[in-house]
Amino acid sequence: MIAAQHIPPPNALTRIAVLVERERKTRFSGGKLGYLWAYITPVVWIGLIVALFWFLQRTPPIHVRAEIFIATGILPYLIFRQTVTALSRTLTANRYMRYLRPVSNSDIMSATMLLEAFNMLTTAVLIFGAITVLFGSALPTSMPGVLFGLTLAWGIGCGVGRFVAAAGLLSDAFARAVPLILRPLFWLSGIFYTATDLSQELQNLLWYSPFLHITELVRQSYFLGYTSPIASVWYPIAVGAFFFLASVPLEIFATRRRIMRGRL
């Protein structure tokens, strides 16, 4: 009787809501400080890079404080990375939930995506708000534009993360290699520079990095007077949609293969 109470109800929305709450409690367990780690990590990253700027006596290429310049660069990257990392682990962490019908892989991954969306919004409000209050930085020129840029980072993270999760059903080694694959993207995201600082050759080359587009979109919306020479909305959307759509047949194939091998 007790076990039956934990089985998610058949309604899809309610089922995913239950899975979101379960994901939140299990991932951030460990006392009252547990959930705060979702917000401590980006603060530490921003603090370390700002300290590096001070140590090297560097100034942002835009006439703004280093704290807000770094925050507008690193938050999109961290949102993408955290979403991919969470999705790459979620099917393994919740593998026993798949034995409870009608819970599916899509339900589990959707719950993880929604939890990361909540974390994204909360982290952005806390960090941008704290920098504005503590350092007197100006408010964003276009708040909807900033939120849209961060949502693009989350959207690509959902697409790539779902693809990685599906591929992980076929190969554990692939899932474990993802952090190594993501590492170079840190340098291609425009955290330390803007597109206007790059030569035309580098602009043409880095145009293929969707993360540079997202960072430029966020900064274009945040800083008055800054206009990016390369920012495109449709390219990041196309990249995220490609990985998301490619993950669907891959997940179906991987699930059928595991069923045939008796490994569901």
From TrEMBL:
The keyword Translocase does not apply. Pfam families: ABC2_membrane (PF01061). Keywords: Capsule biogenesis/degradation, Cell membrane, Membrane, Polysaccharide transport, Sugar transport, Transmembrane, Transmembrane helix, Transport. Residues 33-258 form the ABC transmembrane type-2 domain. It is found in: Cell inner membrane; Cell membrane. GO terms for cellular component: ATP-binding cassette (ABC) transporter complex. GO terms for biological process: lipopolysaccharide transport; polysaccharide transport. InterPro entries: ABC2_TM (IPR013525), ABC2_TM_bact-type (IPR047817), ABC_2_transport (IPR000412). The chain crosses the membrane at residues 34-56, 62-80, 118-139, 145-165, 177-195, 233-254. GO terms for molecular function: ABC-type transporter activity. It comes from the Bacteria. Its main location: membrane. It is a multi-pass membrane protein. Belongs to the ABC-2 integral membrane protein family. PANTHER family: CAPSULE POLYSACCHARIDE EXPORT INNER-MEMBRANE PROTEIN CTRC, INNER MEMBRANE TRANSPORT PERMEASE. This is Transport permease protein.
